[in-house]
Amino acid sequence: MTIAKRGLMLGATALAVAAVTVTGAGIHLSQSKAFFEESPKELIDEVWQLINRNYVDATFNQVDWEAVRTDYLGREYTDQESAYAAVREMLEQLEDPYTRFMDPQEFRNMQIDTSGELTGVGIQISQDEETKEIVVVAPIEDTPAFEAGIRSKDVILAIDGEPTEGMELNDAVSRIRGPVDSEVVLTIRRGEETLEVPITRARIEIHPVRYNVQTGPEGSVGYIRLTQFSANAATEMSAAIEDLEAQGVTGYILDLRSNPGGLLYSSIDIAQMWLNEGTIVSTVNRQGVVDEEVASSRALTNKPLVVIVDGGSASASEILSGALQDNQRAVLVGTRTFGKGLVQSVRSLADGSGVAVTVAKYLTPSGRDINKHGIDPDIAVELTDEQREQLASERDLIGTVDDPQYSAALDVLVQEIQEARAGNNVTAAPAN
Predict the structure, then answer these.
(1) 315 is catalytic
(2) Which of these is catalytic: 174, 266, 313, 315?
(3) Within this chain, do residues 228 and 98 fall inside the same structural domain, yes or no?
């Protein structure tokens, strides 16, 4: 099955705001052409058919998928809610937290997300495939969750006192989100410590790109922090690069730390701004069909580039950083990325509900499958617990020389600038 480039998403996580979403690289909606009557069984069969045609694993997790259809269509359902519960139960047999059903409200909330204005606490959460724990991928900067000190890799043990053990990801998101100015208390595990974190929900307007010019030993440096691959990320990134170029920066540091991903096409568009040629990403479906995205000579700059990544850099962040690393366009500094390399397609159903189906996996340009592993930086720079605490409490230090990973990235960038200048100064010897 051919899927439109802008109809894919990679590595799903959920965004705990009133706009529930699936994030990780590339959200977009593709309207299902098959409509069903307002019959619970027809809804179940429509979802079954979508999985049967498109799911990435042709064995359906070693499940007899035909038998599943016979089973669920042989039952009686009193209303749509009972059908929704049956669909979720049916999908659980795939043991894939990223293939999931969304009722009409959840689906509408997901659609709102890409507008860049959200209501809630501002965290992306995922469900660990093995332990089933609810894990924070990353808080969004300048949101209530970020202000409260929530961090990437925090495990959410309870929501308002309700244990999350056995809780579905959608249910966790529904419990975390809520009206503006209301409070939710998250019980989290961080290492060996258990914390109670009260968070007041708010309306959140997201501007994913922030940038400034900083002084470096080899001239001014453009620092760009990208927090999410939302619908406006590419536009804001383009404006940032063009402004920094006009200011004559000598090189760039691109900060993707705690960026949980977002729209696939956004990551591809942004990769085009840094790459003139080379593969950006390829996806492989269950038939082994490879769909490849290639740079098309649209780079806005060729100046030296260093990218900072960490364990909160997921999906779209991994597409971008993997493309830049494999094409030797940038040096990666920091720690191993999150490791989400799965592709989902989101389909709307006739009653306003929707389903996200894992349809493929993605590979970096060199053919790496980074799912569950992540991308290793070229230069590893770990933060101590004390350094993490300081950066969490003093956010103004992020992207300054008092930020150890930024400082290391700046040292690498200086070396890259010097090597680029030396290369430009080399001239061919005259022929004898």
Answers:
(1) yes
(2) 315
(3) no
Q: Which residues contact 416 (CB under 8 A, 6 or more apart)?
A: 251, 304, 305, 306, 331
- Residue 39: domain span: 5-107
Please report whether residue 428 resides in a domain: no
Return the closest-CA partner of residue 214 out of 201, 226, 225, 223: 223
Grouped pLDDT means (10 residues each) for the chain, 432 residues: 36 36 34 48 94 95 97 93 95 92 81 62 86 88 89 94 91 87 96 96 86 92 93 95 98 95 90 98 89 95 98 93 98 95 86 91 94 95 92 86 97 95 60 40
Residues contacting 215, CB < 8 A, separation 6+ = 221
| pTM over cut 0.85 | no
Q: How many CA atoms lie within 13 A of 54 on its CB side?
A: 22
Instruction: Decide if 41 is catalytic.
Output: no
* Active-site choice (103, 269, 326, 351): 326
Are 214 and 201 within one domain? Answer: no
Q: Pick the catalytic residue: 340, 345, 353, 361? A: 340
Q: What does the alpha-carbon distance between residue 269 and residue 262 come to, in Å, rounded to a whole number?
A: 12
Q: Are 110 and 102 in contact (CB under 8 A)?
A: yes
User: Could you identify the residue written with the tokens 């937290």?
Assistant: 97
Amino acid identity for residue 255 in this structure: D
Instruction: Show which of 75, 107, 139 is a domain's final residue.
Output: 107
